[in-house]
Write a structure and sequence with these properties.
By secondary structure, the protein is of the alpha/beta class. It is built from 18 helices and 15 strands. The strands form four sheets. It has an eight-stranded parallel sheet with strand order 4-14-13-12-11-7-6-5. The protein has a three-stranded antiparallel sheet with strand order 8-10-9, covered by helices on one side. Helix 12 (283-292) links the parallel strand 11 (272-277) and strand 12. The protein starts with 10 loop residues before the first helix and ends with a helix. The model has no long low-confidence stretch (mean pLDDT 87).
Length: 428
């Protein structure tokens, strides 16, 4: 293992899933028959989405429909999880979100995640800032840190008809013409020919909305990058070997976003168009503009989304939590997908996000931790456990497709009960 750590993220629970797969969805079997389970306390995390409860009904008409269709009582294995994710076919309402270019995300760990995501047939986002920092990799495709190496590692394992790659581009990636590099590369032809290549315009990031990319570099790196980026010599002091390198977050208005999506569609007609938004006060309006302009997917990072580097005050105080993003954006009104990230690692949080309008959920830090635990099978086992929980939870509310979930399947603290609502409606 690389020694990767995850801060306040539930690291040990994720690593246990990477080791044991679906067994981690249950208490330790050694306690079976001798332990009284339940009432264990608050869930891991503690935000509004974690506090929301999944509430099965008594009457389940969709279960009856499934019973008639099958000719037997349906079980959790009958839940259909196949999902269209931003124009790609996925076996689950799950995708791998972007990891960026830090030392943690690059090298062998990034390749391990790419291989396992491809093997699973899950869509994967690659970016951002990989090319400016680690290179594209055309001259050295075997290099572990370049963008092309991750794409090739994914493609080598990808089953026919499933998955796809979304290449993310930020303002600094645009200077490196990342989309042009990929679109013109012979290695991308299998993705283009099968409709499994997307380009994602990065408008912002959940962990640091309103800021551009930030990294810590040494003095030599700072001198090399000073012409292209802002380098602050004063943050760590003149005597420190460290420098803070920053890039512009980009400037957007409604019309700029529309024009950028039109540009993408005109210049890269064979690629899908995705747009990534930060948890902004106007996230609903931005998502609506993107879908109306023809985006195949809008990705929204909640403030819980991870990052390689950001000011602590942003991590603690800036941006809407994922639950509020979901409440404001709602379910897409047309064919576009709503993809969300933000401390997704287990089935309950995923089901809640799906019930609140998400098409699919993204694994970020959880996938990196799982690959760190087991580079060959960790992500697969993590996803197996997540899949089992999705099937159990969706069938428990009497539904048999992820897309059938809705807000009626949830209860949040502070919301009125049905009886209280009836009384309110009947009051003069």
């Amino acid at each position: 293992m690389s020694g990767l750590r995850a801060g306040t993220f539930p690291e040990e629970q994720v690593r246990e899933r990477a080791r044991t797969g679906g067994a981690a969805a249950f208490p330790a079997p050694e306690g079976y028959g001798r332990t009284l389970f339940g009432a264990a306390g608050a869930p891991v995390g503690g935000d509004a989405l974690d506090a929301t409860r999944i509430v099965p009904p008594v009457f389940m008409p969709q279960r009856l429909e499934k019973l008639i269709d099958l000719g037997r009582e349906p079980i959790y294995g009958d839940v259909d999880l196949h999902t269209a994710v931003g124009g790609f076919r996925s076996p689950l309402p799950v995708y791998l979100s972007a990891f960026g270019s830090t030392q943690v995300a690059g090298g062998d760990l990034g390749l391990a995640v790419s291989r396992q995501a491809g093997r699973l047939g899950l869509p994967m986002v690659i970016g951002e800032n990989v090319v400016p920092v680690s290179g594209y990799g055309r001259t050295d495709p075997s290099g572990p840190r370049g963008l092309l190496s991750r794409i090739n590692a994914y493609l080598d394992e990808l089953p026919d008809g499933l998955g796809g790659v979304a290449v993310q581009q930020s303002t600094e990636d645009a200077d490196a013409e990342v989309w042009n590099l990929v679109y013109s590369d012979p290695s991308a032809l299998p993705l283009l020919a099968s409709g499994r290549l997307a380009f994602e315009l990065k408008v912002g990031q959940g962990a640091k909305p309103g800021l551009g990319g930030m990294t810590v570099v040494d003095a030599a790196g700072a001198a090399r990058l000073a012409g292209a980026y802002t380098v602050d010599d004063g943050v760590y002091g003149a005597d420190s070997p460290r420098r803070l390198r920053s890039s512009s977050p980009g400037t957007f208005t409604e019309e700029i976003l529309r024009q950028q999506i039109r540009f993408m569609r005109n210049n890269f007609p064979r690629a899908r168009v995705w747009v990534k938004l930060h948890p902004a006060q106007d996230v609903h309006e931005a998502a609506a503009v993107a879908w109306q302009a023809g985006a195949d997917a809008v990705t929204v990072d909640g403030a819980e989304g991870g990052t390689g580097w950001a000011p602590s005050v942003f991590l603690d105080h800036v941006g809407l939590p994922l639950s509020e993003c979901l409440r404001r954006v709602g379910r897409p009104g047309g064919p576009g997908s709503l993809l969300v990230t933000g401390r997704i690692w287990e089935g309950a949080r995923a089901v809640k996000a799906l019930a609140l309008g998400a098409t699919a959920v993204g694994l970020g830090r959880a996938a990196l931790l799982a690959a760190d635990e087991d580079p060959e099978h960790g992500v697969r086992r993590l996803v197996e456990c997540l899949e089992l929980e999705l099937r159990l939870l969706i069938s428990a509310v009497g539904k048999y497709a992820a897309s059938a979930l809705g807000p009626e399947d949830l209860w949040a603290p502070g919301e009125p009960t049905d009886r209280e609502q009836e009384m309110a409606w009947s009051s003069p």
